[in-house]
Amino acid sequence: MVSQRLGQLRHLHQVEILRQVWTHHFYWDAAGALRWRDGHTLPRLLASLRFDSPYDTDAHYCVKNGLEWSGYRATFTECCDHDRPENVVHAAATIAPVQNGTLLEEIHADLAVLSLLPSEHLVDAAYPTPARVARARRIHGVTLTGPIPTASGRTAPPDPAFVKSAFRADWDTHTLTCPAGHTSRPWQQLTLNQHPYLQATFRAATCRSSPQRPRCTSRADRSRSVTLQPTRELHEIQIGNWADQDTQQWKDRYAMRAGVEALNSQAVRALGLRRSRYRGLPKTRLHTVLTAAACNVVRVGAG
Ligand code: SF4
What we know:
The protein is an alpha+beta fold. Helices cover 35% and strands 19% of the residues. It has 3 domains: 2-64, no CATH class; 76-148 and 250-302, no CATH class; 153-230, no CATH class. It has helices at residues 2-10, 13-25, 104-113, 130-140, 204-208, 213-216, 232-244, 248-254, 259-270, 281-302, and strands at 26-28, 34-36, 60-64, 67-78, 88-95, 120-122, 143-145, 168-170, 175-177, 188-192, 195-201, 225-228. The strands form 5 sheets. Strands 3-4-5 form a 3-stranded antiparallel sheet. β10 and β11 (195-201) form a beta hairpin. The relative contact order is 0.11.
């Protein structure tokens, strides 16, 4: 009878969640001792599919810029026009592993419903991609302004003069011309994780004998290859954005975005946003919206 009851308990939803939490967060070491995994040794299961708390199945572990937490992610959008009050016009919350940039379409769609779409939206580097810049312009008529990340680490050439933007694309012949004046083979259309891209490769014999090779590529055994956005429109957005974001004029304009950091600080330090008062994403969303409303009330009071 007892074993039958225990068997039934195993099928309870709550017991299954607890089983998964324990499975993901504890392990037996070689000496047979039960150990707790820290964030860096959690199983490489997609974080959004893993239960990190038996009390709140929407709360997930995340790391950003060295900060670790388990829970949610909030994003605020505020008006930064000089002739208008700097009020929060949108607040969004999602599970922690979701990247901020994926919220962009939701933010624009919500602002469109309220007729609050800006002509220009200043965002941090987590948001803009060529595709998002194109979509914001095409669907919402919004200019998305933010730094598009450039190649870094192993993908960057030894000399910055040989970055992708130094290669001239010919969209008729589907080839690139490198800074040394050599033409690539016709580029190939490839896909990575369902994302299409183009890859142009230079002839090995050409690169091997090129005096520019040490500046152009660190790949000792192979020729230089360059990946491109899948369409000309996206490629030109990327190259144009990189050129713009290096100019002082662009930096001066982008500096207006700094105000939202004060808002984030206010929400975190004065209103305790980092500690969710509720369990579950729906209530946490409401908490985020109410926090944004409180920020506005404080600002109106201070004004
Ligand atoms: S290494 Fe190849 S791609 Fe780079 S500059 Fe020389 S020839 Fe051009």
